[in-house]
Amino acid sequence: MKERNLRYSISDNCEFQLSIQGILVSLYTKLRTALSSNTNLEQAVKELEASASRLGDVVDEERNCIRIATNLLEGIACSRTTNNQNTLGKAIDGCNVFPHEALRTCVKNFYKFASDYPNIRHAGNPASKVRELKKDDALLAVAVTLAFSSYVFDNDSGHSILQGEL
Fold it and tell me: From CA 148, how far away is CA 152, in angstroms rounded?
């Protein structure tokens, strides 16, 4: 019989096993705590939490959730960039944390999606829309944002997140 809590599961032979959900909750908790000293970023986190909680109930909340998610990531990138740029697409170039250019490109492509898709960040380009947004798109935006935000904001926190030092 296995017992579980949020961070660990306990095997039949009483060994603690770190859970994926525990890692994700720890990553988010550490990021939220770190951002609490920055009023603008803390506000963006609260807005994202509110939007994510409305996804199941509000029609067309997907655009709003994706917009807020990219705003949060943009704010974090701008706070950590070395090039003093103020848009995600440019600020990310000054975030020297990536082990490979493909990861930086991933952030830029995420930003391009949010900027090109009609009425997320800008009027967008209706021709670029392949299909209507759905809840899964907003959930992906939240996951991508939280993962990259944590990564860019404190690129040396893996050990403390895994140890539960939040």
Answer: 6
Contact status, residue 114 vs residue 70, Cβ threshold 8 Å = yes
What is the mean pLDDT for each group of 10 consecutive residues in the chain (166 residues)? Answer: 62 82 91 96 97 92 97 98 97 98 98 96 93 96 97 93 82
Residue 6: the pLDDT is 65
* Domains of the chain by residue range: 38-155
Phi, psi of 17 (to 5 degrees): -130, 120
Per-residue pLDDT at 1: 44
CATH of 38-155, one of 2.30.29, 1.10.1740, 1.20.120, 2.10.260: 1.20.120
Taking each helix axis as running N to C, give the angle between helix 39-54 and helix 20-35, from 0 to 180 degrees, rounded to the nearest 10.
140
User: What is the token pair recorded at 161?
Assistant: 């997140």
Both structure tokens of 22: 């525990």
Judge contact between 152 and 76, C-beta under 8 A: yes
